[in-house]
Specification:
82% helix; single chain; 119 residues
Length: 119
Amino acid sequence: MSTLTSHERVQSDRAAEILSQVEGEIRDFVRRDVTGSWRPSEDWTELTPGNVGWLLQRASGNAVQEIDDSIAALRALCDKLTEQTTRVQRELAQYAGMNEAAQSSIRTISDSIAFWKKG
C-alpha cells in the first residue's frame, strides 16, 4: 500500500472539496429548475450516474427544444418574407402597368392639345 506525500494529500483534499462543491451546485440546480414530473426527493444526497444522466438529458432537452423553436420561428419568418416578396412583385407589376397607362393617356392628351392649337 502506497502512502501519499503531503503535497499529494493536499491536492487530493482540494479535488474532493471541488467535487463536493460541484455536486452541491448540481443538486441545487436540479431542485430549483426541475419542472418535469420526476423530482429528486428531499433526501437526495448522492450524485449517481442515473441522476447525472437525467440532469444532462434535461439540460440538453431544453437546448434542443429552444433550437427547434428557433428553427420554426425562422421558417415562419421565411414564409412571411416569401409572401411579402410575392406581394411586392405583384404591386410593382401593377404600378408598371398603371405607369404605362398614365404615359399613354398623357401622350393622347398632349397630342390632342397640340392638334387644337394648330387648328
